[in-house]
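Practice problem 4.
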């Protein structure tokens, strides 16, 4: 799965043949088909595993007392993931493959977005997030967070770079009720 993820996000899905994936993984091509029905099935399994990994911090954020702290926790853990596993960030946020995703994979991402939206909605209920659609504010926050994640994943911003926090501060300012 690791070899496929790296190849899909560097060489592209169609250029990443199963013989190439098998060679990169150091396995026989038939081994892929013992675990996955097709290359598309492999992609979807990787995608859903990546979404589950990103969903964990969203769920864990419930232990924090306010929306800003919850979003900071989510972004911090996602940045750690971006540093440790850059292709995963590219797969979920930067790679256009909607036509290759099965309904279960699309639903997994939709659920991640609903969970993020719920964090924002809780912040709205507490008066921390500005008036308006929680979905729009979740999208705004996520777009800015992804900007930081992509730069961390690409290595442009090392873990100690101030850029990610500046972007996150801007993301919070964009949705914060204090800025109305």
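Answer key:
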């Amino acid at each position: 799965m690791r070899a496929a993820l790296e190849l899909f996000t560097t060489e592209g899905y169609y250029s990443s043949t199963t013989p190439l994936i098998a060679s990169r993984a150091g396995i026989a091509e038939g081994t892929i088909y013992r675990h996955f029905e097709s290359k598309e099935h492999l992609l979807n399994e990787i995608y859903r595993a990546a979404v589950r990994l990103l969903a964990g911090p969203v769920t864990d954020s419930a232990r924090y007392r306010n929306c800003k702290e919850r979003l900071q926790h989510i972004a911090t853990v996602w940045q750690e993931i971006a540093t440790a596993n850059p292709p995963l960030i590219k797969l979920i946020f930067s790679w256009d493959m909607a036509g290759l995703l099965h309904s279960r994979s699309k639903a997994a991402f939709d659920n991640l977005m609903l969970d993020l939206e719920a964090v924002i909605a809780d912040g709205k209920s507490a008066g921390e997030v500005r008036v308006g659609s929680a979905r729009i504010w979740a999208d705004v926050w996520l777009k800015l967070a992804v900007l930081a994640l992509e730069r961390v994943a690409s290595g442009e911003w090392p873990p100690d770079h101030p850029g990610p926090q500046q972007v996150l501060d801007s993301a919070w300012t964009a949705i914060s009720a204090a800025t109305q």
